[in-house]
Structures are given as C-alpha cells and as structure tokens.
Amino acid sequence: MQGGNALLGIRLNTFRARLLLWILLSTLALLIVLTGIFYQYTAQQIDMRVGEAAQRNVSQAMDNFSLLARGYDSLTKSIMSNAEIQRLLSREEPTVMDEFNKQLLMMGALGTIYYSYNDVKSIHIISPVGNVYSYESTTHKINHGFMKSEWMKELRESDGSLVWGGMLGEDSLTIREEQEEPVFTFGRVMTNLYTTRPLGFLVIEADPRTFLSSMNNLMIKPESRSYVYSSSGSLLVTSHPEDTSAYPEKSVLDQYPFLEDAADASDNERLIVTAMDPKLGWKLLSVTPKPVARVEQAAANRYFVIVSVAIVLAAIVIAFLLSRSVSKPIKSIVQEMRRVERGDLSPQLHTRASYDEINYMNEHFNRMVSEINGLVERNKIATASEKNAQIHALQSQVNPHFLYNTLEMIYWLLDEQENEKLANLVNSLSRMFRYSSDWRSSTAMLKEELDQIHYYMTIIGARSDGRIHVQHRVDEELMETLLPKMTLQPLIENAVIHGLSIKSAEGTITITAKGEGQMVYIFIHDDGVGIPPKKLHELQLSLKRAERLEWSQLKEEERQSLSVEPAIYGESQGSGAGFLNVHRRLVLEYGAGYGLRIDSEENIGTTVTVMVPSIMPRA
C-alpha cells in the first residue's frame, strides 16, 4: 500500500500532471463562476417570465369566477322571482297533508330550474319555521347544525344580496359521504316581492369543479397553492382543500395589495400574485415557492449540464494536449538523464521544433554529456596506463614464459612416470599461473572464472585430502557474463582459508548465479565456521568505506587492510586485502550499487554476493 501511495505521489509530482491539474482547476473554477452567473440570470429571467404568465392566468381565472358568480346570482334571482315558488312560500298549510302536497309542488318548481343548470348539485329553501324544501340529484340527509353555523348567521344578517359560503365541508347543509366530492355553497334571503316580507332562505349547492379547474390553471408547480376569499375574508375555494395547514391566516391578507388587475406581491421565497373582483369583492391569492419554473428550469439545467460536460471534456483534451506538448521534451531530457545516471553516456538529445527554453536545455545537456564522456575516457586511459605499468613491473621481475615452460616440462615428466595425481596438481598450477598473468584483457567471462576456480580447487583438494569441495549451478545463458578478471578466486580463497580450513568436518562451497533486469548476482556460499556478528559488522563497514575512497587513497586503504582484515578473519594475512581489492575494483569499474555484499551466521556459514551489470561479449 505504501508503495502504491509513493508511486501515486511520484505521478502527481510530475511536471505534466501538475500542468494538467492547474489547467483543469482553472477551467473548472471559470466554469463554476460562469455557472453561478448564468444560473442567477436564468432564474431571474424565468421568474420574471413566469410571473408575467401567472398574472395573466390570475386575471383570466378572476374573469371566469366573475362570470360564474354572475350566473349563480342570476340563478338565485330566477328562483326568488318564480311565481309558483313565491305563492307556495307565502301560503301556510294548516294540515300535514297540505304541507306534504306543498312539498311536492315545491320540488316540481325547483326541479324545473335545477335541470337548467348543469353544475348545480342541489337547491334548498328553508322556511322561517324550519321546513326545508329541496331538490337534488341524490338524496342526502339534512345537517341540523347548519342553522347555527357562522355562515347561516351571516346569511340571516344580510340585506338580501347574494352571500357566498364556498366549500363549507362538514358545515354544509347536506351531509355527504367521505368519498363524495364537496360542494360550493351560496344563498340569499327569500322575500315576498310585493310585501318584502321574509319567506325563508335560499341555499344552493353547486359542483366546485369549475372553480377548481380554473385554479388548476394557476398551478406552476405541485407546491403551488391558490385561494379565493369572499369580501368578508372567509375562504371560499382552495386548489387543495385537503391541505388545511397551508391556509393563510385572515390577518395575512391585509399584507397584500388586492387590485382589479393582477398584481405581483412576490417576496424572496415565494411568487405571489393577487387580484380582486370589485363587484363581488372576491380576492384571489396565488402562492408558489421559488424557484417557480421547475419545468423550464429543469430544461435549462439539462441544457447547461450538457454544455458544461462538453466544456469540461474539451478542457481536458486541450489541457492534455497542451501539457503533453510542454512535458514531452522535458520528459525526454529526464529519460536521457536517467540513462546517464546508469552510466550510459552515449545518448544525445535531438533538437526539435520546440520552445526556446527547451532547446536551450537540450543543447547544454548534450554539451554536458559530451564533457562527462570525455572525462570518463580520460580517466579510463589513466587507469589503464596505471594498470599496465603495474603489470610491466611484475613482468620485469619474473619472466612468465620461463615458468610456463618449466611447469609444463615437470607435468610431462610426471605423466611419463604415470604419477597422475601430482601431474594434475602441476597442470592446475600452470594453468592458474598462465590465467593470472595474462593481462591482455582485463575482463573475462564467468565461464573462464569458474574454470580457474576448478584448477584452484584441484590444488586445495590435494592439500585438504579431499575434505573441501566446490560445486556450481549456473545457467548457460549467464556463463558469458563479463566481469573483471580474477574476481572470484580471491573470494573462493577467503572461503577456503577463513571458513573451511579450520573446520574439522567436510565443507562445501556452492556457486550460483541469477539475472534480474540489468543486474547479475553471483552467490558464493560456504558452510564453514562463519563470522562473529561484531567482526561481520566491521567488515561491512570496511566495504562501505572502500566505496568512498578516491584513487589517491587506494594505496593507504590497501596498507590498512593488512592490519584490519586479519583481526576480522583470523591470523592469516594477504587474502583479506584481496577481498577489499575485489570490491574496490568492481566499484571503480561499474560505479556505486555494484561490488560485494557479505552475510554470515556464526557456525552456519557465509555468503558473499557479487553484483555486476549484465554485460555480454559482442558478437
């Protein structure tokens, strides 16, 4: 998980990722600002347009109500002026039978008027003594509490003009079932046309769907509510009779202007439109929570979302292309720098049609690599000259050809005497000496190093009476790996002298190798006595210290190793210095990260790891 986070951090820290992120953030910030401005402007414009439409709808609804009210007024007047009804109401019947006949005659007169109006549900006339004469499509029970209601009280106190009761609900004259629709109630006082003597009260119940249909036209959104009030302030009709909690208080009406023409009385939270019929005194109030135009706003929002998504996608594409055009040449420079870090000084950046700053970096990077390459070549020449001088000095002291010839002569003499064991020893010594003294090439293949180990172990096997063995398991594909000459023998010699020779039982040295990417690991493991932890730590510090040495300090390190390493390994001298020299040669040849690594456990064994680059001979 930590590795994944680190990788993610590296990706986010790249120049390209940062540039892409900044472009996207800038585009999104600009888009958000434009979105807010566009949304605010759109909402205001839609509110204004919808407000104007709402005013027109309110004016139209108010006109419909006025026409409907005038029709109802005409209905009541036609009933009150009906001669038959006037005659029957003016006459008092002495007997029950006469009253029954009066009931029948009254129903006939009312029925004739009833069928002239489609939206009338029932017509009732209440006599001064409490008799009710009715005609309705479906017979309903009479609500006896109706005579004591507030609306009936208002009707009694009226001056003979039409009194609007509206949708009285449970307080209506007739008792209706729950599943039945409510009725719209209105009435007036019945008087004798000649004597003006009160004859009773006319109560008409009409179908409210005509009112509700006009009020539904005022619905802008489901949350919209419309109310119609009488001149006295009582609620006549509402668009949602079941929602009694939303009815405005009677005192709230005084806050709004009610004019003959529809007026906008909106506040910050609601769209409010009012109107009034000056003849009836009716007041119409329409209330809609903002934003008022859900459908229009939703359509605008969908369009804006589509445009926003398109802008964001276009911004991503533009940002990607722009960041790529800027980061690609920089990425090329970074890749070449990494190759230089790995020791490859051959790359050269090609100047392309890019930014002037990038071209300047390419040019100076090429110049820097060229100068480094020159310094490395000069250093190699100086190092080779120093090695050649050392080799010539050795050759001037001992003539190797004389030794080769002498050893081979001894080998043939022993072979003629059939002394095979001693002949093999002499042959191994001869081949070892020939290999170690031939410095025409400073590198050798791993196979050649293993052959040299074979000759060396032939001699060691004779000295140890066959108690020390060596075996290797190396894949054929790694056998041609190049490494500095005489790299493995000093390490095998250390394992024999310091790990196995002081062990009484038999010992084995195992050589294995594996390749990982551009690196080859060679493992030399012995099952000897191992190294004590304290001394192992000192040896590991010596390896690290050797990596930091300069050429001028190499001689001093070699001198100090003669006194340091015997204290680590034991009493023997010489091979300890060879161990550090091998490590130093690998570091000087290939750089930091290559060389030797040592691990050991006391009384279990020691493992030396040789780390070299995967280099094969040229075909």
UniProtKB/TrEMBL annotation:
Subcellular location: Cell membrane
PROSITE patterns: HAMP (PS50885)
Membrane topology label: Multi-pass membrane protein
GO cellular component, one term: plasma membrane
GO MF term list: phosphorelay sensor kinase activity
Gene3D superfamilies per record: 6.10.340.10, Histidine kinase-like ATPase, C-terminal domain
Pfam family, one: His_kinase
Organism domain of life: Bacteria
Cited SUPFAM superfamilies: ATPase domain of HSP90 chaperone/DNA topoisomerase II/histidine kinase (SSF55874), HAMP domain-like (SSF158472)
Annotated HAMP domain residues: 324-377
Keywords: Cell membrane, Kinase, Membrane, Phosphoprotein, Transferase, Transmembrane, Transmembrane helix
Sequence intervals crossing the membrane: 20-39, 303-322
SMART domains named in the record: HAMP (SM00304)
Keyword DNA repair: no
Keyword field contains Mitochondrion: no
InterPro entries named in the record: Bact_2-comp_sensor_kinase, HAMP_dom, HATPase_C_sf, HATPase_dom, Sig_transdc_His_kin_internal
Alphabetized PANTHER family for the sequence: SENSOR HISTIDINE KINASE YPDA
Name used for this protein in its record: Sensor histidine kinase
Protein species of origin: Paenibacillus pinisoli
